[in-house]
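haha ok so turns out i had the wrong file open the whole time. this is the CORRECT one, sorry everyone. sequence first:
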Amino acid sequence: MKILVLATDYPDPFGSFNLMYIHVRNLFYVKHGINVTVLNFAASENYELDGIPVMTLDSYTKTAEPYDILVSHASNLRNHYRFLKKFETKFKRLVFIFHGHEVLKINEVYPKPYDFMGSQSGMKRFLQNRYDGMKLRLWKKYYTKLRHKSDFVFVSNWLYQQFLKNTNINFKENIWIIHNSIGEIFEQKNYNPASEKVYDFITIRADMDGSKYGVDIVNRLAKQHPDLKFLLIGKGNYFKHNQKADNIEWINRPLPHSEMLGFLDQSKCGLLPTREDTQGVMTCEMAVYGIPVITSDIDVCHEIFGDLENVVLIDNDKEVDLIPLLNRLCEQVPYQKITKFNREHTMQAEVDLLLGSDHRK
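then structure:
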């Protein structure tokens, strides 16, 4: 079986980790006998990554080579929609994997950006609303037209409910809820509660400047708990515009998974507040690794983490005494290994879908 994967961006051999979650999936597909080629809309030249060929739009256009299935991640109008309108008839099956923005009304679910990111003017909000309205109308018409040969995969039920609300699409066939998988290293390794603890809390955010990721909440909680020590890992400009709490140690760079584990073992608890998310993969990874985690009391977190004993949800907007929460969570370490986000329940479900297995759930 040959599949073509559409991606707005993609990791490369030169140090980019953009949309790594797509590459991780593709490597799993290859291990299970699926021939994968990626069309990276951001690429200016063809390349290969871990044996997977990655091509430019121009390269595909010149050949229009046939594939069995087209897999579209986080489809947008500029790239995916235009590509589909031109080449969709060349594919027998389509699989749309929804990650967030493509079916959301941004101004309804995303929090207000930090002030230093630029003011959100009335005109900007108006234009965003207009764009989202157009985006949802076009996709509704297109999904309805192609439903006979399409599968629709959502990384959470919360996201699927947003899709239903925003598109008013009423068909329910070929709808699948399949969580994003976690990094394999978090499945294979386990948190070491016996290692020396340097930090009370650890926060890892690739994008510190997105207000939905709650770095301001972490900073506020640190200031409210001056006797506790916080580690924040992530790149951004937040602390160029806001005073950092004295008890936060900040590593201003992204880390590969392998390097994260050492810092997790030096920490008592993860702290990952969020104002909006479609799943919260980093929280899933920490929880599966076995470290206790505190995240936010929002709907999607109830869905994803409500049944996990080592995850506690807190109100983003209220003062929280972290000390009793920390003590209670640490008393119960070690926790039973969580498997619901492992590849056998996530990526394997996608492989079954692509191969057409009868036992798809």
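The CA atoms of residues 17 and 120 lie 29 Å apart.
again sry for the mixup
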